[in-house]
Amino acid sequence: MTSTPKQRRMQFAISVALVTANLFLLNWIALGNYGRVDLTRDGVYTLHAATRKLLGNLDDLVTAKVYLSEKQFLDNAGWSLLPRQVKDKIDEFVAQANGKLQVEYRDPSDDKDIEREAQQAGIQQIPLGSSDSSSMTVFQPFCGVTLQYAGKEEVIPVAEPPRLEYDLAMAITKLTRTETITIGFNVVNQLPEGLPPEMLAQMRDQFPRDLHDIDNDYRSLVTELRRQFVVEKVPLTTAVPEHVNLLVVANTKGMNDVHRFHLDQYVMRGGKVVFLTEGVDPPQGQMPVLTAQDASNDEFFKHYGFGVKKNLVFDAQCPTDRYGRRIFYVPEIQPRYFDPDSALVANLGRFMLMFASGIELMPPPGVEPIVLCRTSPGAWEQTGFFDITPDNVLQQRKDMKADDLKQFDVVGVLKGRFTSYFANRPLPNDLTGASTGPSAADLGMSEDDVEDLEGGDEDESDDIVDDGATVPDQPAGGEHPTDAPVQDPAQKPATDPVTDPTKKSDGPSEQDVPGGGIADAAQDPPPVPAPAPEGATPAAPQVPENPDPNVATAPPEGAGTQQAVFVVKDSPETTIVVIGSSMMLTNNLIEAGAGNLEFFWSLVERLTTGGELSEIRNKLIDVPAVRADYTPGEKNAFKYVGMLGVPVIVLAIGILVYVVSKAKSGRAS
Amino acid sequence: MNAVLCVAGKEFKTYFKTPVAYVFLVVFLALTGWAFFFLGNFFEQRAATLRDMFGFLPWSFLFVVPAVCMKMWAEERKIGTFETLLTMPLSEVQIVLGKFLAAFGLVAVALALTFPLPVIVGMTAASSVDFGPIVGGYIGALFLGAAYVAICLFASAITESQIVAFILGAFLAFGLALIGSQSVAGIFPSAIGELLQLLSLQTHFMNIERGVVDSRDVLYYLSVLTFFLMLNVAAVKRR
């Protein structure tokens, strides 16, 4: 049966419609199922697997506004490529986000409204210089991004192309992360709170090294960490809150047994700790002669498998000033001296250690030691007498023989299951609010794991000891008068939830203290408000009802009143990192761009989140420059030959063909 | 396939028997060189890259590809060879594909003749040039050129006037390139704006020209080709 032309047209129209529909469908399906080949030499457009995973897992729309003064960048010599670099990177994000990232570019160059909008959004103007052969101009463009997701907003005030992938990924992570990661930050010898500013200033002048203040000395680090994490002050005078995912202990001088106990129990509960500590007190004011730290922490550290040497390390591999002069032989730790197999430091850059001491790892059974970073082989040490006068250091370097130079371990990791430092030791007498957190059941331990220990008697098979600790007659802190005040037990309720092992601490809460400081975790979780009546004598807290019949409560020897204290004796798998310098995180080194921030950040990231994001490396979409030594004549030659050379040849061939064909046709006719 | 190549070969040679191919090549190469050296300020920006040249291609193609394609069908009709062509033992699909390959061949030759520009980039760069993006740029340019040819060929098939075919082809290509730009897509609600960007010739080209070959972009261009060549066949059949 033959069809009419009308029927054929109809059939063809239907075919066209079907093919079109299929093409749409195919493209639609391909949006979520695709492959990409990055032809660039260094794969500069290939986002890191962690970024791709992050973008692929977006479940709702992220909207980004890119405030980019494109016109200003293009108009200023030397900066014209930047907008493209930013856009290329953002385009890659869009391409990988399966429609879940929507980007709007806004150019504030000639628009005051957009400029105001950018400023209100927190985007910073960047003062930049642009120079051509005759003049130098300064301009202040915007190049920043705001991201919004589910009512939350993150701002990248300055989007630098090399690190834009990391910044964007971090901002999106923070927007979409449902759980909070809390970094506990401890400085044992911190400046006391509540003192008049003049007195604080005086104390800081007098003891610039001994007395640290997180809100000041580590402000830059904390500000950076807060971009991704909640940061809480953890004074270690009470139990470390459970929600603290990583504890940073910067400067361990003045640590007493109460601090050690809470630190120990944090580790026993699986907490990860980064120690930044040295064996020699860094300089006090202008004093060039330093002293070794006392040995009070040595046993404690040794128990976990590390030691901090009482030495001061200098290194020929050190930063130089603009004239190429070595700066004080401060060790600059190079990536080639990192452990090549450790993911914790993979792909990281150099960093600087000031007044650093060597560390040594001597792990107990079940703990794996890894030396993460070492100095260069051109390092040496001062021991015994520490004189950091530049002349002395220089002379020492000159006198140094080749045999005296060697590598020093400066960063190490201990991974494994640790035993409690207090398993075989009496508990400190002045534990207050001494909850060690979860009950045996919370820790997932069987009843067999839990045994009773009375007053410091040991039983090696114990995992948890329910011990009694004396309530001190006076507030603790004798060894460290500058510690945050310890809570008076009298002001704690008889059924203090902190001492109640059946209760868990509250969830994470970042409490900014006035002035933008760090929330004090000592007050978190807050005790149930049950203030003692005025004038009441301190009452002995009652021993809480034992939640587990296998766990008995009994006071230690000589104890007067008791609080139930559960001591965990064995830790699950956890990690302790040791860095032989607490100065590496202070403001001046963080702000110096010496790589310290990136190094430490990566450690924190990798220890708390598995560190996928921190593996994102800076990538610059690098375009080689055109040589600058061409004369105007040479430039013109390139221009006109490049632009007109081939067209002229083509034109000549065209004319030749035309002439030949004309001649042929003329002859034929 | 032989039939297709036969048609393509005949059409391709025809280009060079008339001034069309030469004028096209001269104009295209001069425009491209001007965009690279003067519009992109090659020596002032001091960036050893061909991105400015590739970035200008969607617009330079707008002038020259419709000129190459406008006569393909329109002239056949005008001089009365259209019916003769259809009486030949060839299917409409073969004829359309043959004409498409001929015009696309000319575009490919034009792109190949831009070779002095990457040579100059390589010569003048202070350090080694990454040729990945340059290769990507040429791959993207071929896809873009093929899409333009398919669009303009269709425009030529639905009219007898070469001028109308030129304008219609340029308008369609311009529209498909422009809808993805921020200034157009940005004025629509996000979902529509996103759809417009997905449909845009330029959006997909920008991805490839920086050196990233994405299966979605390749599929998009193949879809555009299929769609317009299919419409072309329909237009020929209708006549």
Descriptive overview:
The complex is a heterodimer of chains A (669) and B (239). Chain A has 669 residues and is α/β, with parallel strands linked by helices. Among the domains of chain A are: 128 residues, Glutaredoxin, CATH 3.40.30.10; 327 residues, no CATH class. Chain A contains 15 helices and 26 strands. In chain A, the strands form 8 sheets. An 8-stranded mixed β-sheet of chain A has the order 18-21-26-11-10-8-9-24. A 4-stranded mixed β-sheet of chain A has the order 3-2-6-7, sandwiched between helices. The relative contact order of chain A is 0.12. Chain B is mostly helical. Chain B has one domain. In chain B, helix 6 crosses helix 8. Chain B is globular and about 60 Å long. The model of chain B has no long low-confidence stretch (mean pLDDT 85). At the A-B interface, helix 1, strand 1, helix 4, strand 3 and helix 15 of A face helix 2, helix 3, helix 7, helix 8 and helix 11 of B. Strand 1 of chain A pairs antiparallel with strand 1 of chain B.
First and last CA, distance of chain A: 54 Å
Give the low-pLDDT segments of chain A. 433-562
Give the helix/strand class of chain B.
mainly alpha
Number of strands of chain A: 26
Taking the sheet with the most strands of chain B, its summary is:
none
Outline type of chain A: globular
Q: Level of helix content of chain A?
A: 25-40%
Oligomer: heterodimer
Alpha-carbon Rg of chain B, integer: 18 Å
Give me the side-by-side strand order of the main sheet of chain A: 18-21-26-11-10-8-9-24
**Computed Rg of chain A:** 33 Å
Biggest beta sheet attributes of chain A? 8 strands, mixed
Distance between the termini of chain B: 24 Å
Instruction: Give me the strand/helix succession of chain B.
Output: HHHHHHHHHHHHEH
Averaged pLDDT of chain B: 85
List the helices and strands and how they pair.
The complex is a heterodimer of chains A (669) and B (239).
Chain A: H1 5-32, E1 36-38, H2 49-56, E2 62-68, H3 70-75, H4 82-96, E3 101-106, H5 112-121, E4 128-131, E5 136-139, E6 143-149, E7 152-156, H6 164-176, E8 182-186, H7 197-206, H8 214-217, H9 219-225, E9 230-233, E10 244-250, H10 257-268, E11 272-276, E12 289-290, H11 298-304, E13 306-308, E14 311-315, E15 332-333, E16 351-352, E17 359-361, E18 367-374, E19 379-383, E20 386-387, H12 390-399, E21 409-419, E22 450-451, E23 464-470, E24 519-520, E25 562-568, E26 570-579, H13 587-591, H14 596-609, H15 632-668
Parallel strand pairs in A: 2-3, 8-9, 8-10, 9-24, 10-11, 11-26, 22-23
Antiparallel strand pairs in A: 2-6, 4-5, 6-7, 12-20, 13-17, 14-19, 15-16, 18-21, 21-26, 23-25
Chain B: H1 2-17, H2 19-39, H3 42-45, H4 51-79, H5 82-87, H6 92-112, H7 116-124, H8 132-157, H9 162-178, H10 182-185, H11 190-199, H12 201-209, E1 212-214, H13 215-238
